[in-house]
Amino acid sequence: EALKTYKADKRSLTGNFYSALRGYAVRLYVRELIHPGAAENEADASALIQMLQKKSYYYSTQELAWAMLALGMRIQNAAYAQNYTATLVVNGKTQKPRETKDGKEQD
Questions:
Q1: Residue 100's pLDDT is what?
Q2: What pTM does this model have?
Q3: What are the backbone dihedrals phi and psi of residue 82, each rounded to the nearest 5 degrees, phi first?
Q4: 93 phi and psi, to 5 degrees?
Q5: Distance in angstroms (rounded) separating the CA atoms of residues 90 and 96
Q6: What angle do CA 15, 21, 27 make, to 5 degrees?
Q7: N or C: which end of the chain has fewer CB within 10 A?
């Protein structure tokens, strides 16, 4: 009774570091490791993308790192891996690709 189970229901920056975003990202990453490119992983990928579309100025490094690892693996493993485009938006402004010394666009 002294050790009661604590369940976090929202993200916190102190004490408990629960994060739904990180939870979805880790789950997608592990599922892609086990079943690469599987159609059933699309629901987690879509949920993760929806969570990242909301404005948040306080994403943690762990949240962003896990999200990028998971989505990168999903894109690499999915059937549509050869046919996608991405746009980087920073502070509401679309960023243009930078050119390298050899004249090629840098990803």
A1: 66
A2: 0.62
A3: -90, 0
A4: -110, 130
A5: 11
A6: 110
A7: N
